[in-house]
Amino acid sequence: MAHVSFDGTRHETLREESVLDTLERAGVQIPNVCRSGVCQSCLMRARAGQVPLAAQNGLKDTLREQGYFLACQCQPEDDLEVVLADEDAVGEIPVQLIGVEQLSQSVMRVTLEPQQEFEYRRGQFINLIREDGLRRSYSLSGCAANTDGILELHVRHIPGGAMSEWLMQAGPHQQLRVHGPYGSCFYVAGKTDQALLLIGAGTGLAPLYGIACDALAAGWSRLPRGAEFAASRAGAVLRRGRPRSGRCRSARCVARFRSTRWRRGARE
Ligand code: FES
């Protein structure tokens, strides 16, 4: 059986087990969402060893060249030495909890003040780490004009969920840590006439909201006449209306979600 080396420890893989499975079995927490090769949140990099081609499906050529792969899709045939993607580029900083505000019945806005300089782009995601080591991945949202220097997360409240339940109860000034940022889904300035297609649901709308705000702030010229930010599940409506932008404020709303489920959610 092949072995996976991570953070100085060598782990034996089991039959038909992915690198993600192997590391999780060993108690290592690796960011992941879909476990099916779609979201790329489990991106890792091989420092040594041959990565199976199937583990690099959907990655840019530049990433493949550097040995990046999707941990959930990687069943190694040879020994690998792996690190988290951009491990050298990301960092960990202390943050202070500023507030928790209910956006809907199931989604809350969590704001954090970095205690050190922290460079990120809205649309990327971070690992939020509690004092006892509990960590969860959340996307970075918000608008530059509203959250200058403040990190904004949209967190779905899961009854009994270790982190979301704790955040609901936690008072301000709690000390946490943020590790990241991760991901390359963000607005790249300089292509102001480029079309944008942003599709999401539930708290998956959070990074899209941030990306839309950054695009508007950067002078994106293909403004929508309007949009509603909606979720596909009742009770998960994140925010109705438009990104706060002077150019968008008078826009006519043209995007409506008319499914029964949307109407149910919209009333809440
Ligand atoms: S967890 Fe989504 S691609 Fe691996």
List the topology elements:
Blueprint: E1 3-6, E2 9-12, H1 19-25, E3 43-48, H2 61-65, E4 68-70, E5 80-84, E6 91-102, E7 107-114, E8 125-129, E9 135-141, E10 151-156, H3 162-169, E11 175-182, H4 205-217, H5 246-249, H6 260-267
Parallel strand pairs: 1-5
Antiparallel strand pairs: 1-2, 3-4, 3-5, 6-7, 6-11, 7-10, 8-9, 8-11, 9-10
Bound molecules: FE2/S2 (inorganic) cluster.
| Poorly predicted parts | 225-268
Count the beta strands: 11
Average the pLDDT over all residues and give the rounded result.
Answer: 80
Largest sheet: 6 strands, antiparallel, barrel
N-to-C SSE series?
A: EEHEHEEEEEEEHEHHH
Bound molecules: FE2/S2 (inorganic) cluster
Distance between the termini: 53 Å
Q: For this structure, what is the CATH homologous superfamily of the largest domain?
A: Translation factors
**Biggest sheet: strands side by side, in what order?**
6-7-10-9-8-11
Q: Using the CA coordinates, give the radius of gyration.
A: 20 Å
Written overview of the protein:
GO terms for molecular function: iron-sulfur cluster binding; oxidoreductase activity. InterPro entries: 2Fe-2S_ferredoxin-like_sf, 2Fe-2S_ferredoxin-type, Beta-grasp_dom_sf, Cbr1-like_FAD-bd_dom, FAD-bd_FR_type, FNR_nucleotide-bd, MRET, Riboflavin_synthase-like_b-brl. Pfam families: FAD_binding_6, Fer2. This is 2Fe-2S ferredoxin-type domain-containing protein. The chain has 268 residues and is an alpha+beta fold. It has three domains: 82 residues, Beta-grasp domain (Ubiquitin-like (UB roll), Roll), CATH 3.10.20.30; 92 residues, Beta Barrel (Elongation Factor Tu (Ef-tu), domain 3); 66 residues, no CATH class. The strands form two sheets. It has a six-stranded antiparallel beta barrel with strand order 6-7-10-9-8-11. It has a five-stranded mixed β-sheet with strand order 2-1-5-3-4. Strand 8 and strand 9 form a beta hairpin. It is globular. The C terminus is likely disordered. It binds FE2/S2 (inorganic) cluster. The site of FE2/S2 (inorganic) cluster has 12 residues, from loops.
